[in-house]
Amino acid sequence: xxxxxxxxxxxxxxxxxxxxxxxxxxxxxxxxxxxxxxxxxxxxxxxxxxxxxxxxxxxxxxxxxxxxxxxxxxxxxxxxxxxxxxxxxxxxxxxxxxxxxxxxxxxxxxxxxxxxxxxxxxxxxxxxxxxxxxxxxxxxxxxxxxxxxxxxxxxxxxxxxxxxxxxxxxxxxxxxxxxxxxxxxxxxxxxxxxxxxxxxxxxxxxxxxxxxxxxxxxxxxxxxxxxxxxxxxxxxxxxxxxxxxxxxxxxxxxxxxxxxxxxxxxxxxxxxxxxxxxxxxxxxxxxxxxxxxxxxxxxxxxxxxxxxxxxxxxxxxxxxxxxxxxxxxxxxxxxxxxxxxxxxxxxxxxxxxxxxxxxxxxxxxxxxxxxxxxxxxxxxxxxxxxxxxxxxxxxxxxxxxxxxxxxxxxxxxxxxxxxxxxx
Length: 423
Prior knowledge:
Layout (H helix, E strand, L loop, with lengths): L3 H15 L4 H17 L1 H17 L4 H7 L3 H16 L7 E6 L5 E8 L2 E6 L4 H12 L3 E5 L5 H17 L7 E3 L6 H7 L7 E5 L2 H10 L12 E5 L5 H13 L8 E7 H17 L3 E4 L1 H5 L11 E3 L13 E7 L2 H11 L4 E5 L3 H10 L4 E4 L18 E3 L7 E3 L5 E8 L8
Parallel strand pairs: 3-4, 3-6, 4-5, 7-8, 7-12, 8-11, 9-10, 9-11, 12-13
Antiparallel strand pairs: 1-2, 2-16, 14-15
Helix pairs in contact: 2-5, 2-7, 3-7, 5-6, 10-11
């Protein structure tokens, strides 16, 4: 039986110890973990292969299986991210907003760990390592609850993480793993506000909704992307093809992959057929609105894999090689569409008009806003953070890729010379 209350108590005790650690001890643990991932690759890949086979037998989608799958390249990338995190500045103890008040009190804010994090996630085993590394570096303990589809992989990864912690004399309880697929444990975890300080769900819309509706712990939500790129009339169309292809094709099963292209009507007759031809070669199926479809009237040779968009297509996170295309009259129409259909994850404009770029950045209220770049850069490692625990699309506390600083809070420190407050 899993005793969640005891797990949380142990995590709290570990968190109290972690907050006093020196940077070098935390960094040594991360570097040892990076080495162990590669040294134990055969064991890890064997465990992952078991999960992949079971996932296929259970009928999981291609997107979910891709997220689940580990290979030597992905393990190497995970190890590299660990070294990057080890090389980042330690936010714990950072002093900021220092000032001296007229009465002589010296006041500053000082970064401290949040405490105990709980992360509920589906499929992606790299989350196990990313979250553990960022939690450790920021002085937090973490309780992990992965999906049933990645149980064998997570068991193997957590064993390696515990080995790394033990080698540098850190408490293994700093990284707790709920080694069970019992769904009732999730609801129990959501009620543990006395010992868990922050909950981060990483998965589909259903998981996020369930956590928001049932958790007594503060919840950070995000990671669901309906991502847009708007091709302005001034865009470099040749470059736009490459950016769109990268955003859609490089890894279509992740939340920062492109879902919808909006095309300015003035360039549509030229650009839409070129876009279709370019993406069809990459295996992309295109869902075109009626006006975009009309641009294809004289290009019957490109008809395969091009269909009329349906009523829900512009509200769909595809997670596959499918892309919606819609014509718009101008920048204002593009921004109106994004406001109506975006999940606030990653949206961008392709343009050579600085004024339009400035308006887009000012008015689009997504966690990441792009000018002439692929949405695939919404990623902790790509933005210099080493890794991420989640991509937040909400407004409170943190937005976008959440890394070290986002896993800290602060306290006020006030120094005086035996000051007393007058009436």
